[in-house]
Amino acid sequence: MAQILLTTTVGSFPKPASLLEARRKHARKQLSAEELLTLERRATEDWIRRQEEIGLDILVDGEMYRGDMVANRYYPKPAVVRPVGRRAPITVEWWSYAQRLTPRPVKGMLTGPYTIAEWSFNEHYPTRRELVLELARAIHDEAVDLERAGARYIQIDEPAIHTRPDEDFDLAVEAMDIVTKGLSAYTISHICYGDVPRIYPAMLRLAVDQLDLALKNEDFALLDTFKSPRFTKDIGLGVLDAHSHRAETPDEVADGIRRTLKVIPLPQVFVTPDCGLKTRTTDETVAKLTAMVEGTRRVREELSR
């Protein structure tokens, strides 16, 4: 029988202090790109090992190579000044590195076209719609490259999808159709926090296998929303509050899963944190994920009796 209640995470983990300092030195041209890459790879391997030790089923690379907007007072908002596209794959090298470190599946991670457009200035395309759809075509090409490299799970994050639900949610749906068209990999879209009831049930039209959502932060209130109409996608069930320093207990996790199974059928449920954990400390992250895996194990055992 296929394993039930697979556990995974949303994507980001906290960076070690040594890597944060290395990034600062690199920005001041006091550390070479090669030296920084070595430290990023070392931190990635450390998080792969931690995930294996904790017992997660589907791993992530932890995004040790990405900067953190939350660590800065401001960030430079990108501007689109000419046609968007790729010269070469952007994420495949890091995904391949992480996957070579473990026999467990590692998710490919992409940011969705709607969010990139929403968080950028459009200084080239006549309309926002043209920008979103052109971004979708480029991201589709990246997703195809990830699949060809061997990625079995591909996550397309759309945290900005709540921004204009009454104005152009159809555009977000159209863009995701382009991104995932023809893919055989299992696809996920993470939609963090925001006014989910305002986009439900429209979000069920997104062309992905799973919607990954934050439920713990509001004590699983979204379950009432999902009772009618019925939630038809798989769900990435957020059972850890990514905004809290406190580690949940296995009992809390198990209780959240049990409550969910009264609303969403067992085969549709994956277990995750509410959002990325990069703002937590390493110890907090390990404690939270350990509780998540243990709480999930308890429910699996209950269901197998």
From TrEMBL:
Q: Which UniProt keywords apply?
A: Metal-binding, Zinc
Does Nucleus appear among the keywords?
no
Q: One of this protein's Pfam families, by short name?
A: Meth_synt_2
> Which GO molecular function annotations are given, in alphabetical order?
5-methyltetrahydropteroyltriglutamate-homocysteine S-methyltransferase activity; zinc ion binding
Q: Does the keyword Transferase apply?
A: no
Q: Name one GO biological process term.
A: methionine biosynthetic process
Entry-linked InterPro entries: Met_Synth_C/arc, UROD/MetE-like_sf
Start and end residues of each Cobalamin-independent methionine synthase MetE C-terminal/archaeal domain = 6-72, 73-295
Instruction: Give the protein's recorded name.
Output: Methionine synthase
Q: Look up the record and name the cofactor or cofactors this protein needs.
A: Zn(2+)
